Amino acid sequence: MLLGAMAPGPDFVIVTRNTMLSGRRAGVSSAAGIGLGVFVWAALSGFGVAGLLAASARAFTIVKLAGAIYLVYLGVRALLAARRGAYETPDAAGVRPVGARAGFRQGLVSNLLNPKAAVFFLALMPQFLPAAPAVADTLELSTLTAIVTGGWFVVLVMGIATLRHVFTRTRVRRAADLAMGTVLVALGLRIAVAAN
Which one, of 2, 15, 44, lies nearest residue 110 by Cα? Predict the structure, then answer.
């Protein structure tokens, strides 16, 4: 579970960008959103619902395209921010470009619209559940998976947040937005054109 969480992908990019540009609170909120998304995918896999998604080419394609569009949207927003370059620094009240609610939403939506998460959990979950799992078994494993994933991203947030003073400089923020935006658009396009 931990190795799966640590693999770079859209969740990693979103947590990294939100932490670099908006601080620890936005990063932890993004991690919490991802953790909830992982819980949902793990639970759906344990109950067999994700298998329906994986078996239905149409449903898989719809989720895949929705996820790709969302990643491209986030990437284009980052690229536009890099182009404008008029960054505001947090004021004394702690107002940040990406708040906790937006960070949570970005983490949750990017994870839920990632069809590869469904396939990952569909392949992983049955190996750790009994042949006839009870609801409690599935929920317990889903909760553990969400805690491990969320925990990894919180550790990542804390590491990035220690260097945040570097990331608040306008040139660094512009470069980060340019890099992260490019990666998000590329991931979105890759997901869109990937074969089912």
Answer: 15
